[in-house]
Amino acid sequence: MQEYINSGILETYVLGCATEQEAKEVLYMMEKHPEVRDALRELEADMERIAGNMAITPPAGTWNKIEKEIDEIELRTPREPAIYSDPGQKAPSNKPTSDYIDIESESTHMRVHKGWKWVLLAIFVLGKIFLGFAIYYYFESRQAKEQVQDLKTELKQLKSN
Amino acid sequence: MNTRLQHLQTPAQLKTNAVQGLYNKYAGLLLGYIDSVVNDGEQAEKYLIETFNEVAMRFEEFSKLQGSEYCKLQLIARKKLWTFFNSLQQCDVAETIKKIAGSAFDKHISQMSDMQQKVFCGVHYHGKNTATLAAELNTTEPEIRKVLKQAFSIIRNNSGDAGVY
Fold first, then answer.
1. Residue A41, Cβ neighbours under 10 Å: how many?
2. What's chain A's Rg over C-alpha atoms?
3. How wide is the angle at C-alpha A118 spanned by C-alphas A112 and A121, nearest 5°?
4. Which of A61, B66, B76, B119 has the most CB within a 10 Å radius?
5. Which residues cross the membrane (chain A) (predicted)?
6. Closest to B157 measured CA to CA, from A46, A8, A104, A84
7. In this structure, what is the dihedral angle of CA atoms A112, A114, A115, A118, given to the nearest 10 degrees?
8. B155 with A9: Cβ contact below 8 A
């Protein structure tokens, strides 16, 4: 184990230049061997000591800039309604005994997936095409009936003559 | 009283407070490191802001990660500095030593051998990995790791803590 510690792999890990495989190995060894964990802690303390030697006080407004950006990130992050966030928590409702959520009284709008836009557009276009065909065949059929009627009349006239 | 106040805070506020706690504790250390890398106060502040924003965005992941908080923050900062590291043409150790001259860290670096300086500065200040350094210095990766360890031992011994494992 001392050989592993002395190999310098822990220093590589702490400095962030270890490969993914090396990092996994270090974490595994740290879990298994307390001496590796202690050595790693020592190195982390060294890192802080190194940083402490070169510390610079941040400019006064830096935290405000960070806080502002965190707030913006929070606003941009889509959130599920609190009702769904904790499966163990029951939905707040006017009726305390009800397990259902009263969605109708809350809003007159509903949200649908954007994919439905194309489906609805296709339904609309197909509807128009069918309507066109229906009108076309209606007039076609009416014209045919009129022609049949005319022929019948002509036939009757011929018979009577 | 504090506990009651915590209950009144939203999860977002709790997260912001936790990040602020980290900022209060480590921002100075981190800014010192970043500034020694980029050598530009304004740019260093920009990287510091990006680092803490990243922490806020991945706070749960950050909390679960093993290791000291400072080291985790430094790893994030190094990732943010990746583009900067790549833009560096070559690792100029003399330039780096000039940058840190006068700081308390100068005494550690000045006691390192030429090879130890090259390896430590290459990794710590120029974001190089052991494979790159091994190729540049015409040696092997295990050798680079050993040199890195020696550099750490010098820092530790100079800091008055002789307990080298």
1. 13
2. 39
3. 105
4. B119
5. 118-139
6. A46
7. 100
8. no
pLDDT tens digit string along B102-153?
Answer: 666 667 777 888 888 888 888 888 888 888 888 888 899 889 999 988 888 8
Same domain, B63 and B101: no
**Do B24 and B80 sit in the same domain of this protein?**
yes
Give A73-126 pLDDT, tens digit per residue. 777 766 555 444 444 444 444 444 444 544 444 556 677 777 888 999 999 999
Binary contact (B70, A44; C-beta < 8 A): yes
Q: Which of B98, B96, B99, B117 is nearest to B108 (CA)?
A: B117
Please check whether residue A28 lies inside any domain of the structure. yes
CA distance B165 to B28: 29
Kindly determine whether residue A44 and residue B32, on different chains, have CB atoms separated by under 8 Å. no
**Contact (CB<8Å) B31/A58:** yes
10 Å Cβ neighbour count for B65? 14
Structural domain includes residue B72? yes
Query: Whole domain around residue A36: which residue ranges?
Result: 2-56
How close is the nearest chain B Cα to the Cα of A88, in Å?
Answer: 17
Cβ contacts of B77 on chain A, cutoff 8 Å:
none
Residues of B in contact with A7 (CB under 8 A): 142, 145-146, 149
Q: Do A58 and B165 touch (CB under 8 A)?
A: no
Residues from chain A that touch B146, judged by Cβ atoms under 8 A, are: 6-8
Q: Which residues of A touch B156 (CB under 8 A)?
A: 42, 46
Nearest CA in chain B to A52: B29
Reference B147, options B121, B110, B127; nearest CA is: B121
- Look at A30 and B31 and tell me if their CB atoms are within 8 Å: no
* Complex confidence, ipTM: 0.77
